[in-house]
Amino acid sequence: MSFSDLFDSEFKQRNKGHFSAIVRVALADGIVHPEEKNFLDKLASRLEISETEYEEILNDPLKYPINPPYLHVQRLERLYDLTRMVHVDHHLEDQQEVMLRKLGIALGFTPSNVNHIIAKALSLVDKKVDGDTFVYEMQHMHK
């Protein structure tokens, strides 16, 4: 196995873990709504998730672990995707918010500040900010 193959394999595994985390959020209320399905379809394409992998993850999203990125900016980018999934059907279910908090901790945010981080993330997504604005605002929320 070449070095580039190893890198590609690890990259694909991280993408599958990220996608499965988003599927968990979508399934937190027991139903994947049409708006959530559209979001998942677009995200799967962006993350290079094949149709077979897509179906496999939908059937068992717990199969892939959440691998938090090393860089804080990448964690915020993943939080942006997760928060958009929660917000995509325009009504926040209790289970979705609880799941988002759990995933926030899994991404590496501390239990002591995850509630504040999730509240800010939901507020920004509610304002329909883009990814760059989201990351900037989250990085500067304590300044």
TrEMBL record:
Residues 20-57 form the Co-chaperone DjlA N-terminal domain. It comes from Flavobacterium pectinovorum. InterPro entries: DjlA_N, TerB-like. This is TerB family tellurite resistance protein. Transmembrane segments: none annotated. SUPFAM superfamilies: TerB-like. Coiled coil: none annotated.
